[in-house]
Amino acid sequence: MNETMVCAVGNVATQPVYRELASGPSARFRLAVTSRYWDREKNTWTDGHTNFFTVWANRQLATNAGASLSVGDPVVVHGRLKVRTESRDNQSRTSADIDAVAIGHDLSRGTSAFRRSTRPEAGSAPPRTEPNWETTPTDPSDPLDQADSADPTGATARQRPEPVAVA
Hints:
The chain is mainly beta. It is built from one helix and six strands; from the N terminus they run ββββαββ. The protein has one helix spanning about 60-70; strands at about 5-10, 15-20, 25-40, 45-60, 75-90, 90-105.
């Protein structure tokens, strides 16, 4: 509950490493986040300091990240910040990890083609069918009372919207 949630915007710095563990799929990669600022003297954008984070993804997020991300991809990572300090050879080292909740391509810097992943689930309920929101009414005089002409069973019949109270 009292965790530090962060949103980091940067580039994938290392190829994601995907592993199947006993607890489920896991993936990790390094994220480079470079600040940029406007340099008034040079009248140009200038790169500032670069921070590196190790991003950890688990379960379905790990599977999708391993299949979708490559070095150099601009991404947005949302997750829990974990700062670790360890001593090795009489030297103290500090590293920052992000336990990712969501990872996505940064669409302000390019395009992406999304494909919904399929997850085989044994013994699960049958998939729900989505309503057809793009149906055209058959009777133009009263479109809310008519069923979709392509549906003879009337299963996708449109209903009148309920009035909403505005306070």
